[in-house]
């Protein structure tokens, strides 16, 4: 049985008691830029210092990458390399699809560099199922297996599922300031 993400959010009622304010299974988002991948947009916070205590918390999921002090929690199921559908040949259709469904996702990606990108975030990337390869800009690679946590600190990198099974990852992104 495949891993299915579930979101539970807590808050407070009018008496100040802790309560569950949301519980659901987010629907996957699929984009032409990553054929066969499923994004589960779980939660996000505004840029700046997070706050608690709002009566009706609302997730902030746009843009895809948070600004300084903002956060995002995303589950991502990567298709096995052998099952990846052929990419859409129309670059404009891909850009339009991503801009509509996951605005900002393509912004840090380099043209013609097979998934290489750099973000101004500190990311905690946790492998939940399967295997996923993390490649750095110098060609160094490491294979993540279930239970592996990568702390991605704004380096140039690419994620690749080179296996014949889906890989399921949890990404926690915290917006950061890049120091030159």
TrEMBL record:
This is Cupin. Residues 116-169 form the Cupin type-2 domain. SUPFAM superfamilies: RmlC-like cupins (SSF51182). Pfam families: Cupin_2. InterPro entries: Cupin_2, OryJ/VirC-like, RmlC-like_jellyroll, RmlC_Cupin_sf. The lineage of its organism: Bacteria, Bacillati, Actinomycetota, Actinomycetes, Micromonosporales. It comes from the Bacteria.
């Amino acid at each position: 049985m495949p891993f299915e993400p579930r979101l539970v959010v807590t808050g407070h009622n009018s008496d100040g008691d802790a309560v569950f304010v949301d519980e659901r299974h987010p629907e996957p988002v699929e984009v032409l830029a990553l054929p066969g991948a499923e994004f589960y947009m779980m939660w996000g916070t505004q840029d700046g210092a997070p706050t608690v205590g709002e009566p009706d918390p609302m997730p902030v999921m746009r843009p895809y990458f948070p600004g300084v002090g903002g956060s995002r929690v995303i589950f991502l199921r990567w298709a096995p390399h052998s099952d990846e559908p052929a990419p859409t040949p129309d670059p404009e259709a891909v850009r339009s699809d991503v801009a509509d469904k996951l605005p900002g996702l393509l912004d840090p990606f380099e043209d013609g560099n097979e998934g290489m990108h750099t973000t101004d975030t500190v990311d905690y990337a946790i492998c939940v199922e399967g295997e996923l390869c993390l490649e750095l800009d110098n060609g160094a690679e490491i294979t993540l297996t279930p239970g592996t946590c990568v702390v991605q600190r704004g380096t140039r990198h690419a994620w690749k599922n080179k296996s014949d099974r889906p890989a399921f990852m949890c990404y926690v992104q915290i917006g950061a300031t890049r120091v030159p």
